[in-house]
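Hey, I'm writing a tutorial for new members on how sequence and structure tokens pair up, and I'd like a real worked example in the thread rather than a made-up one. If someone can provide the structure for the chain below, I'll link this post from the tutorial.
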Amino acid sequence: MFANAQTVRCAAPILARQSHSPGHAMSWSHIESDWAQFRDIIKQQWTRLTDAHLDDIAGRREQLIGKIRSLYGISQEQTEKQVTAWVKRVRGPQPPV
């Protein structure tokens, strides 16, 4: 269900090119605006998601959560935790403020 550390490390170079400001946590709006770039990384994390699912989701967080819930049969709370943890991993360590 969750990607392993190797998958997350492989995604790091892609994510390093993101245009969020140093010292600011990447918000969902960054993921939504760069949805095409995040699609493959999301598919690595949740392998049951298809391109058609990701087309329908179109960067909308609540749609992603709903689709993960339905495909994996997990609770809203658990899905929220997974998505939040995934965002923290893909944004990487943040420099001290």
